[in-house]
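User: I'm writing a tutorial on reading structure tokens. Could you give me a worked example: one chain, its sequence, then its tokens, then a sentence or two explaining what the tokens reveal?
Assistant: Sure. Here is the example chain.
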Amino acid sequence: MATEQDYQSLYDRVAALRETVTGRLSADLISNPQLADALTKQIDDMLRSVVDTDSKAPAPPDKGLAQLTGIGPEAASQLGQTRIPAGVEAYDETITSERIIAVGDMYYLWQHEKIGVFRVVQKLQELFRAGTVRLSGGPGAYALYQFDRREVLRYTQRERLAAYKRVFNYGGGAVPTGSRANTDFHKLFSHFVHQVTLFWRDKRISDVIRERAYDPSFGSIAIVRRAGLDLRNNLKWLSFGHLNVLRVEVMQLLEEAFKILNSNDVKRLFGADNAWDVLEEVLIRYFHERLVTSPRQRMGVTGREILRWLSQPHILQTTRAQFETLLLEIAEQSEEWLTSAQAMGLAGRPISQRVLPWEQSSPTPARKNGKPTSVRGKHPAEHELEYQL
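And here are its predicted structure tokens:
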């Protein structure tokens, strides 16, 4: 049980240790900046070990109140003899990974819903029931029958759209009663992805300009971490409820839909080679839609991987070398998501402001003589539209 005097002495001694070590190794720290990270981590680990050990020590029955107020035989004669707790559990360490992984699967499902997978299967059902296509007793026809019979047991399209609206603010569905749409998701998600891509772009530039560059201005892990924590905390409260069960069911539904599209009799009907060809042929022939299959599908795959990465404690890593190694896992996924979203007009690459204000949906356009200027040849209004869905 640490007293106030011990508490103060601990941090004074740690500060003195840092000054002594940096003073004796100042020349080595200049030539080898990575050494500073190693020293900082060792001292931080020592301090954390002492604090954790004290936190696990049993508190007195009165939590130290009698000692503080001067009541009883254990009354303190001075403030330094009173008990002081080290603090409470950090907020950012209390998120359950299962719920964030479920959100990642929901994002994957939304992109396939937006592509039109379920609409295509529904259209095939209509054609099959009407007898206007050459399907009878093949594996695809039988799977279509089973798909139709099981519909009464599944979540409806309205319930799926309501879940997408609640978690992502995507689509035109109505949120369930008592809930609200997550209007901040796309802003925070695209901002985090942009910061990850910017981090690796700056690091690549620094590696070209200077060998073994270690300037903090080249890739700030603090900005990436803050953007990731903001997104993760946003999803913390939106991932409760039936979302976990719903995504399991709809993932099964998506698998079943692709088995229908990939069946031999259905592929033969449209002269297709695979399930994606069937899907695109139906979208063109019966819905007259402009195909966005490839970018949407890749946004779903890479977006799910990014959200899965956020579900783990990697974002809390403070050591640069370890953080970069862990962040490398989603470096290419972030670049691909941002490129696909930019091609679809769903995100952009702002180049002026790195930190996005909480209440602002997109960076403020640069100004010249009091008037907004274009960004990379675009009018400010067009740049603003890139962030809209």
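What the tokens reveal: The first strand starts at residue 367 and ends at 368. Residues 185-209 form the longest helix (25 residues).
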